Amino acid sequence: MSPSDDHQPKSDEATNAIIDADRGYRSGTAQAALRNRDFRFVWGGTFASNIGTWMQNVLLGAFTYRLTHDVGYVGLVYFAQLGPLLFLAPVGGLIADVVDRRRYLVVMQMIQLILSLGLAGIAAADKPNETAVFLCVLAIGIANALSAPALGAILPTLVPREDLPGAVSLQSVQMNLSRVIGPAIGAPLYAVFGAAMVFAINALTYLFAVAGLLIAHYNARPSSHLSGGPLKKVMSGFSIAKSDPLIRRILITMTVLSLFSLTFIGLMPEIAQSDLGIPPKSIYYGFLYALFGLGAALGAITVGTFLAHHSKALVARHALVIFSVLLAWFALIRNQYLAYAVVFLLGFAYFLVITSLSTVLQDHLDDANRGRVTALWIMSFGGTVPVGVLLAGYLVENLITITAVVLFGAAVAIALGAYCDLRRDGAQ
User: Fold this and answer.
1) What span, in angstroms and rounded, lies between the C-alpha atoms of 32 and 10?
2) Domains located in the chain, CATH noted
3) What average pLDDT score do residues 91-99 get?
4) Is the CA virtual torsion 332, 334, 338, 341 positive or negative?
5) Helix axes 370-378 and 84-96, enclosed angle (nearest 10)
6) Are the beta carbons of 50 and 180 closer than 8 angstroms?
7) Beta-carbon neighbour count of residue 196 at 10 Å?
């Protein structure tokens, strides 16, 4: 199937748009984004794939903790999972702006499918090799880092510009609702069948993403014309960010938040066991993580519904302050049942911040540069977190408590609330 040069609504889409308008769908909302056929296909396919990914991601932490009872090793594996985003996302962003995105993404999805099957084989052994687990997770992380910017660059182009806020909201909903559904499915499977079954099921879910990418019509080859040597091309995204105050402030906010305030996500097994008395290999742990993901999903969809026509710059700033208070509360809790309520609210505030920042960024970008700047967003959002988790894992293992690490993250978040004044740089 050959890609269209531009995403033009087909006649049936135009008819649906008129009908949807009659039903009261407002431009910029999540409902308006979903009326676009091609967006639905790609979004739905990657949603199913992400459910499998979060089955693996969440249970991988519990699996490695139970395998070694070593917080440092858990942090190392978490770094292998997401750390490549920090180093390779700019390369993936450059590729996303110069190649056929459809073909590239299909190949990368199939590579991750094969590697996840390999991880399942390693986990099925009577005594899984710790080095083999680390290397296989690292290979999956590298493939994800190289493909994530291309996928992030495609989705915003599948809707008219006026519906972009709703599309960004749904991207966040997808990522976080998959955190709810994935653990809800994966935790019982892990408890009964073990990690290998969970990893194998995740491998098969990549086929849904491949199907969505092949069925949808979209501009698979951007119109970027880059000059200079390979290094200059890879670093061009940084040049764009440096010269644009709004992009720069968003990326600095996200990078600092990820490095210091989101370490609790990767060290959730330690928090659950040490502070709350919840075994990592249990349905109760899966429920804790699922509630965090559910809160995040609802925070994201709130940005695309109730807050669709509010200033995203203001939402991000206020939500950072609320997030910092909830994070400090979560650090001090020792009651399992109270923790369930607080972690839900924490996830909600967390993705009010993330979705609002992402909406402002995507609305500001030109499609010719979208892949490279999206790569920097992915670095700051995903690639920096494992660095913080790795450092925090070392500190908890050798110097301070997990409570002190999370409280420091709360202090950083409230400082970012003062810094993140996007209206100063022209955001609405």
Assistant:
1) 16
2) 26-217+229-425 (1.20.1250.20)
3) 80
4) positive
5) 170
6) no
7) 18
